[in-house]
Structure formats: structure tokens, C-alpha cells
Amino acid sequence: MDFNLPENTVAIRDMVREFSQKKIEPIAAKIDKDDDFPMEVFREMGKLGMLGLTISQEYGGAGLDYLTEGVALEEISYFSGSLGLSYGAHNNLVADNLFRNANKEQREKYLPGLVSGEKIGSLCLTESGAGSDALGGMRTKYEKEGEKYTINGSKTFITNAPLASVFLVYAKNGKSYTAFILERDDGVETPKKIKKMGMRGSPTGEIVFRNVQVGGNRILKGEGQARNIIYNGLNAERAVLAFGPIGIARRALDEAINYSNQREQFGRKIGEFELIQEKLAYMFTRLEAARLLAYKAASLVGETISDPSYAAASIMMASETATQIAKEALQIFGGYGYTEDYPLERYLRDAILYEIGAGTTEIRKIVIAKALLKR
Ligand SMILES: Cc1cc2nc3c(=O)[nH]c(=O)nc-3n(C[C@H](O)[C@H](O)[C@H](O)COP(=O)(O)OP(=O)(O)OC[C@H]3O[C@@H](n4cnc5c(N)ncnc54)[C@H](O)[C@@H]3O)c2cc1C
């Protein structure tokens, strides 16, 4: 068994790390404070090829695997959890989703712009009355008249919505659930940016569709195929997004170690106190275990397994770990951790999102248990 990452994954990791250190680190606190998405940095990511890691070279991408994309997400999230979230939603939930499911014409139309960063993508599933039960509670409807499809309804909590120009939208007609590729110019409205406790700078918004009309060429994979698209993509989504909280957790641990080596109380470095050492040992162990599971889940997606237990376990483990590590790191910083002068409170606010977004911890537990009971 080889625990080393493949050579090309290491090369991408190092490139993303260097870029993030130089371009994201200096503005990470400002992104959070101003709740402002760094568009220029995002476009630079596109120029460097960071936005199309899993997309084939034919469409401007790098043709790499989910593990590599996950490792890149860990690096970005180490410096800014919120930019990592927007990156994950754009890259995996939209661009990779289109790459997997779109026809040639749709791929040619949308992928180059998404890969270059000229266009930002949003995946639109959740509604005000349809969160965990996203399909069962869905009210966004489409109707077919002649060759035209008309979409009416609304979505909420959609990452990147306020800035996006490509929207992958799920809608229903009776018992038929269909995915549409919509453009802002089709008349998609994004009336509200939602204020959040964390992940500030990753714009989250509401979307309204009022008689939005498109042709059948905007349907992804065929009418009535939404369920397949959603369920076939979940392993990749969960396995890649798990690396977001791992990046946040790794940063919080690094900060905690540095502080433990500097801060003195009772005439000693606080790192000399066994209660602090116990925290560091526990944080390190949880992080390494979460990352190993994430590597395994991401590698299994490449082998196209249909069992959802590894990917769901990976994102559950990673997100709970990030919340725990961020909280313990804040505790190690004492009163300073609780202030806005240090980034610990940001790490905790950002980490908590991953226990809710892209499916809650509770739903992940249900998914894992159901898969186990089926075995
Ligand atoms: C910052 C952010 C970004 C997001 N980005 C996107 C995006 O890009 N696209 C998108 O479509 N959505 C997005 N979401 C939505 C996210 O996927 C939902 O918030 C999530 O699925 C939960 O839905 P809900 O908020 O309606 O909670 P609810 O489903 O109402 O759940 C409320 C509580 O009940 C629990 N619960 C629900 N059902 C069960 C059950 N059967 N058993 C036990 N407990 C249960 C939940 O775990 C939770 O604790 C985002 C959310 C946030 C906060």
C-alpha cells in the first residue's frame, strides 16, 4: 500500500499552495470582513488551470482525477475556507457535473468559460421548503409547450448565485424531475445575497425563475433524468468537498501548534502543559484519520463505485473533525482566540458550514447506515 500521493497530484498541490500563499493569504481576513468574493483571484485561478482539474483537455481542463481536485481544495481552504467553498461549488458541483452529464454541444458551449473563470457556476437544488428532502419538497416547476420549456419557482442557499452566469437548475413536472442549464441572460433573477455567520466572501443567494423560457437544448441528459444526475454525482461531490473542512482543520492545528510554542503562562510555554498537549495530539490524530479516509473515498470515486458509504463517511468525518479542531484551536488561543484580531473565530465559523451545506451530518449518517444495512 502506497500512502504517497501520485507525482502529478503533488505537483498540482505545490502549485496551488504557492498560489494560495501568495494571492489568498494576504486578503483572507478581508474577504471575510467585507463578505466580498475576490473575483480577480478567481480569474487568476482560471488562468493557472485550477478551475478545470477534472475536465478533459479538449475543453481547456487538465484531465486529472478527483483526488487531485480534492487536494487542491484542501490547499485553498487552508488559506480561505470561503474561497474554497466557492471553488468547490463551481468546479465540482457545476463544471465537473456538466462534464459528466452534458452532450458535446453543451460541453463546448459552457465548459471553456467555466474552466477559464470567465463564467461562474451555481448548482441550484435547495428551496425554502426543500432542503434535506430536496426532491420530495421541490416546488420549482417546468412546463413544456411545443419546443419550449417554461420554468417557474425559486431556490435558496445557492453558492455563487449572486455572481453566477451559468445555473444548473433542478425542476419538476408532475413526477418528472429534470435538470436545466440556465444562463443569467435567460431572465434568471438573483434578488438577495444572504448574510451568513461564516463562509463570508462565498456569496450565497436566492434565485427566482419567472417564466424563464428555454429550448430542449438546455436539458441536461434528457427529460426526467435529474434523479440519476443527482445520485450518480453524489459520491464525487461528497468525496471532493470533504477536502474543504480538512484544509480549514489543518490551518487551525498549525496555528494552535505555533501559539502553544510561543504563549507563556506560569513561566512556561503553554505547550508544556499536558492538557494542551492532549488537545494537540487529539487534533493531529483526528486530522490524519480524516485525511486518510478522504484519500480513500476520492480514490474510490475514480473507480466508479456506487456504494455511497465511503464518500458520505468521508465528508461527515472531515466536517465534524474541522469543527472540533477549530474549536480546540480557539480554546488554545484563550481570550485572543475569541477576538477578531486572530483568525481562529473565522476558522470555526467557516468549519461549521460543512456540517450543513451539501447535506447535513444527520443525512450523511442516514446514507451511511442505509448503505451498510444493504450490504
Ligand atoms: C452556505 C451554504 C451554501 C449552500 N450551497 C448550496 C448550493 O450551492 N446549492 C444547493 O442546492 N444548496 C446549497 N445549500 C443548501 C444545503 O444543502 C441545505 O441547507 C442542506 O441540505 C439542509 O437543508 P435545510 O437547510 O433546509 O435544513 P432541513 O432539511 O430543514 O433540516 C433541518 C434539520 O433537520 C435535520 N433533518 C432533516 N431531515 C432529517 C431526517 N430525515 N432525519 C434526521 N434529521 C433530519 C437536518 O439534519 C437539520 O439538522 C447551502 C447551504 C448553506 C448554508
What features would you highlight for this structure?
alpha+beta; Butyryl-Coa Dehydrogenase, subunit A, domain 1; Butyryl-CoA Dehydrogenase, subunit A, domain 2; Butyryl-CoA Dehydrogenase, subunit A, domain 3; 3-stranded mixed sheet; 53% helix; globular; binds flavin-adenine dinucleotide
Account of the protein in words:
The chain is of the alpha+beta class. It folds into three domains: 113 residues, Acyl-CoA dehydrogenase/oxidase, N-terminal domain (Butyryl-Coa Dehydrogenase, subunit A, domain 1), CATH 1.10.540; 102 residues, Butyryl-CoA Dehydrogenase, subunit A, domain 2; 133 residues, Butyryl-CoA Dehydrogenase, subunit A, domain 3. The chain contains 13 helices and nine strands. The protein has a four-stranded antiparallel β-sheet with strand order 2-3-7-6, covered by helices on one side. A three-stranded mixed β-sheet has the order 1-4-5, with helices on one face. A two-stranded antiparallel ribbon has the order 8-9. Helix 1 runs parallel beside helix 4, helix 5 packs antiparallel against helix 7 and helix 10 runs antiparallel to helix 13. The two termini are 25 Å apart. The mean pLDDT is 97. Flavin-adenine dinucleotide binds next to strand 1, strand 3 and helix 13. The site of flavin-adenine dinucleotide has 21 residues, from strand 1, strand 3 and helix 13.
